[in-house]
């Protein structure tokens, strides 16, 4: 497993080793001991599977607050997506900054997003499927989000607002500067 740190500490790109032959390949995509050594402790309590039919579909930017904060291990099992994590931890030196990566089913790479980050993605192909493990259960009462194309975030999305397939709910999310539900610094 190759594990690469990103520009924001805690977010990691993981690429499982594939053992290939003429029949196909085998890969370990989650192994608790190796992930814990890399700073990805789990435990994971829920798996999510998402299908987006059209290229240019944007989902996000979503997160959950304590007590139901979620870490996410995201991978694409069909297609390619532009995946984004935005730091929403008030007081963090990286607050408002983001990491973006292209996740590709052909490559098998994954993105680890710890609690305290908003997550979203844009499909780069039709019929993209994502699987992601989360460290806490979905809780609508603890869910929040920020506007996907908030200019202050400077995310270089591969699709413009006029062409993005996005839900009405996600279009109505506030920009980061107007979001009142953010992660607060914990005890020191």
UniProtKB/TrEMBL annotation:
Gene3D superfamilies under this entry?
Jelly Rolls (2.60.120.10)
**Which terms are listed as keywords in the entry?**
Isomerase
User: Which top EC class is given?
Assistant: isomerase
Catalytic site: 62 (proton acceptor), 132 (proton donor)
Which terms does the record give in the GO molecular function aspect? Answer: dTDP-4-dehydrorhamnose 3,5-epimerase activity
Superkingdom is Bacteria
**A GO term (biological process) for this protein?**
polysaccharide biosynthetic process
Q: What is its EC number?
A: 5.1.3.13
Site Participates in a stacking interaction with the thymidine ring of dTDP-4-oxo-6-deoxyglucose: which residues?
Answer: 138
**Any GO CC annotation of this UniProt entry:** cytosol
The reaction(s) catalysed by this protein are: dTDP-4-dehydro-6-deoxy-alpha-D-glucose = dTDP-4-dehydro-beta-L-rhamnose
Q: Which pathway does the record list?
A: Carbohydrate biosynthesis; dTDP-L-rhamnose biosynthesis
Q: Which family does it belong to?
A: Belongs to the dTDP-4-dehydrorhamnose 3,5-epimerase family.
Which PANTHER family does the record match to this protein? Answer: DTDP-6-DEOXY-D-GLUCOSE-3,5 EPIMERASE, THYMIDINE DIPHOSPHO-4-KETO-RHAMNOSE 3,5-EPIMERASE
Function, as annotated, reads:
Catalyzes the epimerization of the C3' and C5'positions of dTDP-6-deoxy-D-xylo-4-hexulose, forming dTDP-6-deoxy-L-lyxo-4-hexulose.
Oligomeric form and interacting partners: Homodimer.
Q: What is this protein called?
A: dTDP-4-dehydrorhamnose 3,5-epimerase
Q: From what organism does this protein derive? A: Oceanibacterium hippocampi
């Amino acid at each position: 497993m190759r594990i690469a740190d990103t520009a924001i500490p805690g977010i990691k790109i993981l690429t499982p080793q594939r053992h290939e032959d003429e029949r196909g390949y085998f890969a370990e995509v989650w192994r608790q001991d190796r992930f814990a050594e890399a700073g990805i402790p789990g435990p994971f309590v829920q798996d999510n599977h998402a299908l987006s039919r059209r290229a240019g579909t944007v989902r996000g930017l979503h997160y959950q607050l304590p007590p139901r904060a979620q870490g996410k291990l995201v991978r694409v099992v069909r297609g390619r997506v532009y995946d984004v994590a935005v730091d929403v931890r008030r007081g963090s030196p990286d607050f408002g900054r983001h990491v973006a990566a292209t996740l590709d089913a052909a490559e098998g790479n994954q993105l680890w997003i710890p609690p305290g980050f908003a997550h979203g993605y844009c499909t780069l192909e039709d019929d993209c499927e994502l699987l992601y493990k989360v460290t806490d259960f979905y809780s609508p009462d603890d869910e929040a989000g920020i506007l996907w194309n908030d200019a202050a975030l400077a995310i270089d999305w591969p699709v413009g607002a006029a062409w993005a397939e996005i839900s009405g709910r996600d279009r109505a999310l506030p920009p980061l500067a107007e979001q009142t539900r953010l992660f607060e610094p914990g005890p020191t």
